[in-house]
Protein backbone atom coordinates (compact mmCIF):
# COMPACT_ATOMS: atom_id res chain seq x y z
CA UNK A 1 0.00 0.00 0.00
CA UNK A 2 1.43 3.42 -0.97
CA UNK A 3 0.15 6.86 -0.06
CA UNK A 4 0.85 8.64 -3.34
CA UNK A 5 1.28 12.18 -2.02
CA UNK A 6 3.60 11.36 0.87
CA UNK A 7 5.64 8.43 -0.44
CA UNK A 8 4.59 6.42 2.59
CA UNK A 9 4.36 2.68 2.00
CA UNK A 10 4.15 -0.49 4.03
CA UNK A 11 7.56 -2.01 4.77
CA UNK A 12 8.73 -5.30 3.30
CA UNK A 13 11.43 -7.61 4.65
CA UNK A 14 13.93 -5.72 2.48
CA UNK A 15 13.47 -2.72 4.80
CA UNK A 16 14.01 -4.63 8.05
CA UNK A 17 17.78 -4.18 8.37
CA UNK A 18 17.55 -0.44 7.66
CA UNK A 19 14.76 0.02 10.19
CA UNK A 20 16.69 -1.87 12.86
CA UNK A 21 19.79 0.25 12.22
CA UNK A 22 17.76 3.47 12.46
CA UNK A 23 16.14 2.29 15.68
CA UNK A 24 19.52 1.63 17.21
CA UNK A 25 20.92 4.98 16.13
CA UNK A 26 17.94 7.29 16.65
CA UNK A 27 15.79 5.65 19.33
CA UNK A 28 17.64 3.02 21.34
CA UNK A 29 20.99 4.79 21.65
CA UNK A 30 22.46 4.27 25.13
CA UNK A 31 20.10 1.39 25.83
CA UNK A 32 20.11 -2.25 24.80
CA UNK A 33 19.34 -2.83 21.10
CA UNK A 34 15.99 -4.64 21.22
CA UNK A 35 14.65 -3.83 17.74
CA UNK A 36 17.07 -5.93 15.73
CA UNK A 37 16.32 -7.14 12.22
CA UNK A 38 14.52 -10.30 13.40
CA UNK A 39 12.11 -8.39 15.61
CA UNK A 40 11.40 -5.88 12.85
CA UNK A 41 10.72 -8.76 10.43
CA UNK A 42 8.23 -10.24 12.91
CA UNK A 43 6.50 -6.88 13.19
CA UNK A 44 6.29 -6.62 9.38
CA UNK A 45 4.70 -10.09 9.25
CA UNK A 46 2.29 -9.43 12.14
CA UNK A 47 -1.26 -8.82 10.91
CA UNK A 48 -2.01 -6.56 13.88
CA UNK A 49 1.00 -4.32 13.29
CA UNK A 50 1.77 -1.80 10.56
CA UNK A 51 5.35 -0.94 9.72
CA UNK A 52 5.28 2.13 7.47
CA UNK A 53 8.32 3.66 5.79
CA UNK A 54 9.37 6.59 3.64
CA UNK A 55 12.13 5.97 1.09
CA UNK A 56 13.72 2.89 -0.44
CA UNK A 57 15.25 -0.02 1.51
CA UNK A 58 18.77 1.40 1.11
CA UNK A 59 17.75 5.00 1.61
CA UNK A 60 15.10 5.02 4.31
CA UNK A 61 14.15 8.52 5.39
CA UNK A 62 11.76 7.46 8.14
CA UNK A 63 9.72 4.65 9.61
CA UNK A 64 6.93 4.12 12.09
CA UNK A 65 5.60 0.97 13.76
CA UNK A 66 2.14 0.82 15.28
CA UNK A 67 0.33 -2.20 16.71
CA UNK A 68 -3.45 -2.23 16.79
CA UNK A 69 -5.52 -3.76 19.59
CA UNK A 70 -9.26 -3.89 20.19
CA UNK A 71 -9.45 -0.55 21.97
CA UNK A 72 -6.07 1.06 21.73
CA UNK A 73 -3.18 1.27 19.31
CA UNK A 74 0.43 1.44 20.45
CA UNK A 75 2.95 3.52 18.56
CA UNK A 76 6.00 1.37 19.17
CA UNK A 77 8.63 3.29 17.22
CA UNK A 78 8.83 6.39 15.06
CA UNK A 79 11.97 7.95 13.64
CA UNK A 80 13.06 10.30 10.89
CA UNK A 81 16.68 10.40 9.71
CA UNK A 82 18.38 13.46 11.24
CA UNK A 83 19.06 15.26 7.96
CA UNK A 84 15.38 14.92 7.03
CA UNK A 85 13.84 16.11 10.29
CA UNK A 86 11.60 19.20 10.54
CA UNK A 87 10.21 18.69 7.04
CA UNK A 88 6.87 17.23 8.09
CA UNK A 89 7.81 13.60 7.41
CA UNK A 90 7.25 12.46 11.01
CA UNK A 91 3.88 14.19 11.03
CA UNK A 92 2.83 12.55 7.76
CA UNK A 93 3.82 9.09 9.05
CA UNK A 94 2.05 9.60 12.36
CA UNK A 95 -1.14 10.78 10.65
CA UNK A 96 -1.03 7.80 8.28
CA UNK A 97 -0.72 5.35 11.17
CA UNK A 98 -3.41 7.17 13.15
CA UNK A 99 -5.81 7.07 10.21
CA UNK A 100 -5.56 3.29 10.17
CA UNK A 101 -6.39 3.31 13.88
CA UNK A 102 -9.41 5.52 13.25
CA UNK A 103 -10.62 3.19 10.49
CA UNK A 104 -10.11 0.21 12.82
CA UNK A 105 -12.38 1.87 15.40
CA UNK A 106 -9.62 2.22 17.98
CA UNK A 107 -10.33 4.65 20.85
CA UNK A 108 -6.87 5.96 21.59
CA UNK A 109 -3.21 5.78 20.68
CA UNK A 110 -0.55 5.33 23.35
CA UNK A 111 3.17 5.99 23.01
CA UNK A 112 6.19 6.33 25.27
CA UNK A 113 9.24 8.57 24.98
CA UNK A 114 12.27 9.31 27.06
CA UNK A 115 11.54 12.05 29.55
CA UNK A 116 14.59 13.93 28.24
CA UNK A 117 13.46 13.68 24.61
CA UNK A 118 12.26 17.25 24.19
CA UNK A 119 11.87 16.93 20.42
CA UNK A 120 9.51 13.96 20.74
CA UNK A 121 7.53 15.60 23.54
CA UNK A 122 7.05 18.76 21.48
CA UNK A 123 6.19 16.69 18.43
CA UNK A 124 3.54 14.59 20.21
CA UNK A 125 2.14 17.63 21.98
CA UNK A 126 1.80 19.33 18.59
CA UNK A 127 -0.23 16.31 17.46
CA UNK A 128 -2.67 16.36 20.36
CA UNK A 129 -1.06 13.81 22.68
CA UNK A 130 -1.19 14.51 26.39
CA UNK A 131 1.35 13.37 28.92
CA UNK A 132 -0.24 11.06 31.43
CA UNK A 133 2.49 9.43 33.52
CA UNK A 134 6.20 9.59 34.24
CA UNK A 135 8.01 6.36 35.03
CA UNK A 136 11.49 6.71 36.45
CA UNK A 137 13.03 3.46 35.17
CA UNK A 138 11.00 3.00 32.01
CA UNK A 139 14.05 2.49 29.81
CA UNK A 140 16.16 -0.41 31.01
CA UNK A 141 15.73 0.71 34.60
CA UNK A 142 18.17 3.53 33.94
CA UNK A 143 16.28 6.27 32.17
CA UNK A 144 12.97 7.94 32.92
CA UNK A 145 10.19 7.77 30.38
CA UNK A 146 6.90 9.44 29.81
CA UNK A 147 3.65 7.82 28.70
CA UNK A 148 1.50 9.83 26.32
CA UNK A 149 -1.88 9.18 24.79
CA UNK A 150 -4.28 10.66 22.29
CA UNK A 151 -7.99 9.98 22.23
CA UNK A 152 -9.34 9.41 18.75
CA UNK A 153 -12.97 9.07 19.83
CA UNK A 154 -14.91 8.81 23.09
CA UNK A 155 -14.40 5.60 25.06
CA UNK A 156 -17.11 2.94 24.79
CA UNK A 157 -18.89 2.18 28.06
C1 LIG B 1 10.29 13.13 16.85
C2 LIG B 1 10.53 13.01 15.34
C3 LIG B 1 9.95 11.68 14.84
C4 LIG B 1 9.83 14.19 14.62
O1 LIG B 1 9.92 13.98 13.21
P1 LIG B 1 9.97 15.24 12.18
O2 LIG B 1 9.76 14.73 10.82
O3 LIG B 1 11.22 16.01 12.44
O4 LIG B 1 8.72 16.09 12.68
P2 LIG B 1 7.89 17.18 11.86
O5 LIG B 1 8.77 17.87 10.87
O6 LIG B 1 6.67 16.52 11.33
O7 LIG B 1 7.52 18.20 13.03
C5 LIG B 1 6.18 18.57 13.36
C6 LIG B 1 6.22 19.49 14.56
O8 LIG B 1 6.68 18.79 15.74
C7 LIG B 1 7.46 19.69 16.56
N1 LIG B 1 8.86 19.27 16.56
C8 LIG B 1 9.45 18.35 15.80
N2 LIG B 1 10.77 18.25 16.10
C9 LIG B 1 11.01 19.16 17.06
C10 LIG B 1 12.17 19.55 17.77
N3 LIG B 1 13.38 19.00 17.54
N4 LIG B 1 12.06 20.50 18.72
C11 LIG B 1 10.87 21.09 18.96
N5 LIG B 1 9.72 20.77 18.31
C12 LIG B 1 9.80 19.81 17.37
C13 LIG B 1 7.34 21.05 15.90
O9 LIG B 1 6.16 21.69 16.40
C14 LIG B 1 7.16 20.67 14.44
O10 LIG B 1 6.57 21.67 13.66
P3 LIG B 1 7.53 22.84 13.03
O11 LIG B 1 8.69 22.16 12.37
O12 LIG B 1 6.60 23.52 12.04
O13 LIG B 1 7.93 23.71 14.17
C15 LIG B 1 12.05 13.13 15.01
O14 LIG B 1 12.60 14.24 15.72
C16 LIG B 1 12.87 11.91 15.33
O15 LIG B 1 12.95 10.95 14.54
N6 LIG B 1 13.52 11.89 16.52
C17 LIG B 1 14.38 10.75 16.89
C18 LIG B 1 13.56 9.51 17.23
C19 LIG B 1 12.53 9.79 18.30
O16 LIG B 1 12.78 10.47 19.28
N7 LIG B 1 11.31 9.23 18.09
C20 LIG B 1 10.19 9.44 19.00
C21 LIG B 1 10.18 8.54 20.17
S1 LIG B 1 9.89 6.85 19.66
Identify the notable features of this structure and list them briefly.
single chain, 157 residues, alpha+beta, Aminopeptidase, 4 helices, 8 strands, 37% strand, globular, binds coenzyme A
What ranges have pLDDT less than 50 throughout 5 or more consecutive residues? none
**What is the CATH third-level topology name?**
Aminopeptidase
Using only C-alpha atoms, the radius of gyration works out to 15 Å
- As a percent range, the share of strand residues is 35-45%
The CATH superfamily label reads: Gcn5-related N-acetyltransferase (GNAT)
Order of helices and strands: EEHHEEEHEHEE
Structural domains: how many: 1
Q: What is the CATH level 1 assignment?
A: Alpha Beta
> Kindly, what is the distance between the CA atoms of the first and last residues, rounded to a whole number of angstroms?
34 Å
Mean pLDDT: 94
How helix-rich are the residues, as a percent range? 25-40%
Helix count? 4
Bound molecules: coenzyme A
Can you count the beta strands?
8
At CATH level 2, the architecture is 3-Layer(aba) Sandwich
Summing up helix and strand content along with how strands pair, one would put the structural category as alpha+beta
User: For the largest beta sheet, what order do the strands appear in spatially?
Assistant: 1-2-3-4-5-6-8-7
Topology diagram in text:
Elements: E1 2-3, E2 8-10, H1 16-27, H2 37-45, E3 49-56, E4 59-68, E5 72-80, H3 89-103, E6 108-114, H4 118-126, E7 130-139, E8 143-151
Parallel strand pairs: 5-6
Antiparallel strand pairs: 1-2, 2-3, 3-4, 4-5, 6-8, 7-8
Helix pairs in contact: 1-2
Bound molecules: coenzyme A.
Amino acid sequence: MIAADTGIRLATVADAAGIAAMSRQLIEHGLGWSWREGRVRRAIADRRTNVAVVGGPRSLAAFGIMSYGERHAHLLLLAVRREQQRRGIGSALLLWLEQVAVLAGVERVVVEARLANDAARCFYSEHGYHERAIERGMYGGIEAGIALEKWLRPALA
